[in-house]
Predict the structure.
Amino acid sequence: MDPYARLSLNTATTKRLTLAEAVQATQRHGLSHIGLWRDRVAEVGLTQAAELIRESGLTVTSLCRGGFLTAADPDGQQAALADNRAAIIEAETLGTRELIMVVGGLPDGDKDLVAARERVADRIAELAPFAADHGVRLVLEPLHPMYTADRAVISTLGQALDLAAPHPPSTVAVVIGTFHVWWDPDLADQVARAGREGRIASYQVCDFNLPIAADPLLSRGMMGDGVIDFPSIGRYVAAAGYTGPVEVEIFNAEIWASDADEVLPTMKQRWLDLVWPSLAGVS
């Protein structure tokens, strides 16, 4: 099997490239999958973006992002629902069923974490039927605990699976992102649970770099540059039965400033050395 057949470039890794440039770089380096962020789609418009993807022959592995569902006021809740319905339509139009959901942090001045999580559950319940009607899956992404206040009030894979539990796996699932979950002492059990429940919709890889960047959002690194044990996590994911695409999604100022024709060969080599062997059962 081609060791790169499952490898997907997420456009966050090549942030300074336009959508067309990211598509060309993906093709130029022999990959067949791409993960999209909505900002790159918005720059050219949904219709043109979908046409570009169709002409490229690439498979869109996910669209990021929906979510931000924690608003406490009615206007904020309705705005979030409208934006997420638009994202669902975008995912359908772009040919992917996987909409990555970053659920949102605490609203300004609000410290009630329990209530915020309850609102996420309520908004997911409202969105799930619409997503199902359009053949799109809401893919809940637990984020590292340092982002609880501002980005995601769910921090563990177990919490994400609990939120997904009331809904069919075809409609609500989870993404396993190494940067966010590598630290979790229950990770092996929760990945196995996600596999049993049929809820692994995506696997995203990048490293956790030290020291933490001044902007913690930019502490992700190329696989092998940080502290994450990719072979172990890969074995968990493989044992759970996941055989789908694997996205490399890196937020890192130095990588963003680098030429894509330098970044992608490095990405492919680190994939081959660190990620692929455990997924393929050879390490």
User: Anything to note?
Assistant: The first strand starts at residue 7 and ends at 10.
